[in-house]
Design goal:
This protein has 207 residues and is mainly alpha-helical. It has 8 helices and 2 strands. Helix 1 packs across helix 2 and helix 1 packs antiparallel against helix 3.
């Protein structure tokens, strides 16, 4: 959703700039208010006018109309009403809702991914990938397997041991595992294999 979100924000910026151009050319008088004798010019040039629309108008709950002087009794009253309402409709209601939808979808996808990982870890051994059903032919077989035979912590401790150990003191097997780790190759994990399968294979070959 990152690309769609960036495109939507870009579209929001363009539309906001279009409204800035319209406001700068036709409605500038509504952007000036007197406070203690000092004029508060919110749209005295294109840059400040755009910043005001993007910062104040987009964040305002009712659109830009909430942030500038009302058009009551002015010759452009009805045009201003259309201007304010269209800004509220296109930017506040539609575009901001789309952006919020992208953000919510992104968090939803992340949550689904985390749930998928959790389900995978609960039903399959992380090290060998063998499913829980295979081990649960015996009571608590899967729990025993992931705690004693293929405990992920043991593999992490072993890698930490290799990291801290002098490479000149490695055994042949440690050198092989370290080289695989350096190249981010995980072939030293016994994928699809475990002691139980080896034991069953030995029994089968002996009958």
């Amino acid at each position: 959703n990152g690309k769609e979100l960036c495109l939507t924000v870009g579209l929001l910026t363009i539309i906001c700039y279009i409204y800035t151009v319209i406001a700068f050319n036709f409605f500038r008088k509504f952007y000036v208010s007197e406070e203690e004798g000092q004029p508060d010019a919110k749209c005295h040039d294109m840059l400040t006018c755009f910043v005001f629309h993007f910062y104040k108008g987009v964040r305002a709950g009712g659109g830009i109309g909430d942030e500038i002087e009302p058009p009551d009794g002015d010759d452009l009253e009805y045009v201003r009403i259309i201007f304010d309402f269209s800004f509220y409709l296109f930017i506040t209601l539609i575009l901001l809702a789309i952006i919020q939808g992208f953000i919510i979808d992104a968090f939803g996808a992340l949550r689904d991914q985390m749930d998928g990982v959790q389900e995978e870890l609960e039903n399959n051994c992380f090290i060998c990938g063998i499913g829980k059903d295979y081990f649960d032919k015996d009571p608590h077989g899967f729990e025993t397997h992931v705690e004693k035979e293929h405990n992920l912590a043991h593999y992490l401790f072993f890698l930490q041991y290799l990291i801290e150990k002098d490479e000149n003191d490695y055994t042949g097997q440690e050198t092989l595992v370290w080289d695989m780790y350096q190249s981010r190759t995980w072939d030293f994990f016994p994928q699809g294999d475990c002691f139980r399968k080896q034991y069953e294979a030995d029994l089968g070959s002996g009958t």
